[in-house]
Design goal:
The structure holds 2 protein chains of 2 kinds.
Chain A (H helix, E strand, L loop, with lengths): L1 H15 L7 H17 L3 H23 L2 H9 L1 H7 L4 H30 L4 H29 L5 H28 L6 H30 L1
Helix pairs in contact in A: 1-6, 2-3, 2-6, 3-6, 3-7, 3-8, 6-7, 6-9, 7-8, 7-9, 8-9
Chain B lengths: L8 H32 L13 H28 L4 H31 L7 H22 L3 H33 L14 H45 L4
Helix pairs in contact in B: 1-6, 2-3, 2-4, 2-5, 2-6, 3-4, 3-5, 3-6, 4-5
Classes of the chains: A mainly alpha, B mainly alpha.
Chain lengths: 222, 244
């Protein structure tokens, strides 16, 4: 347990120091959301209607881009081999790494989303709904992405392959994230229904992700 | 004969070499019978002759899902039993399944053009088949990115199983998304029950397509075994080359 705690703190420290690049994801998120009005026009009514979708797409892309650093740095300096052979189960180690990754890359996105919602003319209720769905849904993106990161970590051209493998699996999260955000504002279903399913998706990815990723890492090391 | 007897690739080559002509002949016969029945099937009173696209479309859709099922079983064979032929079976099934998925999409949109007035609608069924097609392409891309076949096999097996868990979830979410966006769907399969004059050709074509899948799959597995032999012979040759 001590080892896992140390791993968690180490990953967070590396991410927030110079060269860690924890905040670049937020910068990317902001850039994508800024691009949207240029593409579809400055119509505030339209932006209000599709604002939750824009925020979700931006967060999805930003968390995807950060994924290739989730395991790659440890693969380069060899500490991934130590984790594979260490006393802690690999499933727990990669789970802890993904948790630290979520805290440093996805949580800033969630915190930034109310500010960006202001730019998209979302009202208070819609902003709260989007922030809540992002808070609950982004762990699913990170833990599904963990599988892709583990599959592609030893590949020379893994960077482009990762999103291709992961995006189809992220479709349910996107659907229920946007559905819950919209449901809070316009209905027709209550906010609770899609939101609970979103929670279920996250819980499931918390279980499936570490096991599949550990299996992929072991297969890649042989 | 147990499955483990097939573990020896040489044995599999000789057995499948003997079985392949028979499989091909059975496929040809089944297709001849299926086409004969299809030609005799009556046109629909609303859809006219376009209803016959269904005889290619529905079996392709069935094989699109069958292909992923074959890959998942083969993935279990790779990861659990370490069966030497399992990852070859998985690799051989991926392009065939992807092709049938593409055929299903193309025939569906060709049917949709006169019936719905558009090649594509974001209907739940169409969308989930399209996502399945993307997942097939992802697995093929993974196979083609890893250079060592054994390691590629493990990675693709894990991805296939994760996909197998996710396919029902994706199907469910797309259904949900669709009912939320367009309540009245264009497709209604719950019309009158299918008449035997249509059902019989459909079953015959489904059998023919399944036989075609099996034939192509066995042939592709043989190619894969031979390709790996060529690969290892090349490597042995390179190792024995002078100047090393």
């Amino acid at each position: 347990m001590n080892g896992l705690g140390a791993l968690f703190l180490r990953d967070i420290r590396i991410a927030i120091r110079i060269g860690g690049g924890a905040m670049i994801g937020v910068l990317f998120f902001m850039s994508v959301v800024t691009l949207m009005p240029f593409a579809i026009g400055p119509d505030l009514a339209l932006l209000t209607r599709i604002g939750p979708a824009i925020l979700w797409l931006g967060a999805l892309l930003a968390s995807l881009l950060a994924l290739d650093r989730l395991l790659a740095a440890d693969q380069e300096d060899g500490s991934l081999d130590l984790l594979t052979m260490g006393p802690a189960p690999l499933e727990l180690s990669v789970g802890v790494k993904a948790l630290a990754h979520w805290l440093t890359t996805a949580l800033p996105l969630v915190i930034a989303s109310p500010v960006l919602a202001l730019f998209l003319n979302l009202d208070l209720l819609a902003t709260a709904a989007v922030t809540a769905t992002l808070l609950v849904g982004t762990p699913a993106l990170t833990f599904i992405g963990l599988i892709g990161a583990a599959l592609t970590v030893t590949l020379r051209r893994g960077g482009l392959l990762l999103p291709v493998l992961i995006l189809p699996l992220a479709i349910p999260v996107l659907i229920f994230g946007v559905a819950a955000s919209n449901a809070a504002v316009v209905g027709p279903v209550t906010f609770g229904t899609p939101f609970t399913i979103l929670c279920a998706l996250t819980l499931m990815s918390l279980v499936v992700g570490p096991f599949a990723a550990a299996a992929a890492l072991r297969a890649g090391q042989e | 004969m147990a499955l483990i007897d097939l573990a020896n690739p040489t044995r599999f080559l000789s057995l499948s070499g003997r079985a392949l002509p028979w499989l091909a002949a059975a496929t040809a016969l089944a297709f001849a019978y299926g086409f004969w029945l299809t030609a005799g099937a009556p046109d629909d009173y609303q859809q006219g002759a376009t209803v016959k696209i269904m005889f290619i479309h529905v079996p392709s859709a069935w094989l699109a899902m069958f292909g992923w099922m074959v890959m998942s079983i083969a993935a279990l064979g790779t990861l659990v039993w370490r069966h030497p032929l399992a990852d070859m079976a998985a690799k051989a099934a991926a392009p065939i399944g992807a092709t049938f998925t593409l055929i299903c999409l193309i025939t569906g949109s060709l049917w949709g053009r006169p019936m719905w007035g558009t090649y594509w609608v974001w209907d739940a069924r169409l969308t989930s088949v399209f996502v399945l097609f993307l997942m097939y392409l992802g697995v093929i891309a993974l196979w083609r990115t890893v250079d060592d076949p054994t390691r590629a096999g493990r990675a693709a097996a894990i991805l296939t199983l994760v996909g197998a868990i996710n396919i029902p979830i994706i199907k469910f979410s797309v259904d949900w998304w669709n009912t939320l966006h367009q309540p009245a769907s264009v497709v209604k399969m719950s019309g009158p029950a299918i008449h035997p004059t249509i059902l019989l050709p459909l079953l015959a074509m489904a059998a023919a397509f399944t036989l075609l899948f099996i034939t192509l799959h066995v042939a592709a597995m043989r190619n894969e075994i031979l390709k790996r032999r060529v690969r290892s012979m090349h490597m042995m040759q390179a190792e024995a080359a002078p100047g090393r």
